[in-house]
Amino acid sequence: MFQPALQDGHNRRVSYVRISVTDRCNLRCRYCSSPAFNSHFREEILSYEEIVRLVRVLVTMGIDKVRLTGGEPLTRRHLDTLVTQIAAIDGIRDISLTTNGVLLEELAPTLKAAGLKRINISLDTLRRDRFCEITGRDYFARVQAGIRHAFKAGFDPVKLNVVVMRGVNDDEIVDFARLTLEYPLHIRFIEYMPIGSTSDWSGRKMVTGAEVLSLISADLGRLEAVAAAPGSPARLYRLDRALGRIGVIAAMSEHFCASCNRIRVTADGRLRPCLLSDREFDLKGLLRRGAGDDEIAALVRRAVAGKSVAHAMSCNAERKCARVMATIGG
Ligand code: SAM
To answer: In angstroms, rounded to a whole number, what is the distance separating the alpha carbons of residues 33 and 35?
Structure first.
């Protein structure tokens, strides 16, 4: 049964859900996880059946776009079967994945065949030694192979997400941007956000989108603004004669909450209406108590109705979200 479209208390239509399919990860990025963090046991995270049921309910409310994330989504077995089942739901227009790319060499073709439309790969450095330092694992070559195989499998564009952290990788901004001259990659520079109570985030570590753009144009020339996809949080640019695009996602310095169209579901089944707010709603409890679709839809509607007009995090404050990113899903 179709329901009225999902809308929050500030007249924003919600049409996009990001679902964390696991909080396990094969990397140990210093800023994303925490040494104290233990991933949930298998039975504590949503099963594929529960995820598919939830997506079916969300589709009746006007959600037509799904992104699978984690933790590292490719560490969850048979992810392609989940992709196939979600892609087959009538009303789903787009299904995408955020991954660290470590397992992509092997899995890219299967995911493409399963109906996955788009891929974002997270990579914060182009140097192997630094990759080991940031992620705690020597998998740089595997990520490079993953990127190549994403292209080979036919994903176009392939987007690389770079979280820019002062004193960690801000000296590589221009190197990343230069890649767009040679390859049809979209490089998206993301502002470091105050997530995870034990993370080392501070306003000083954050490099703003404006700073990223001025560093790039000082070295590589004029950046021409180009239109981003509707609802995208990125501002997009192109260097002269570039094959790829450069994007900045300035969630902190120039937040785009006014056009927010998304909700998130954590690996342990909680609905999180705003990435940067710890206000959550227990969907898993409902699903496992045998609630009907109407009851699930009512909870989603209540959660979305109370979505705040803008996130309350600031570049200068030291306040952070309690959850680590690995459990929320980026
Ligand atoms: N494992 C997958 C990956 O690496 O893409 C998906 C999950 S990961 C949590 C998703 C994205 O969140 C990654 O690009 C990661 O760099 C980003 N991320 C983690 N912590 C962040 C933070 N504090 N600020 C901004 N982005 C963050």
So the answer is: 7
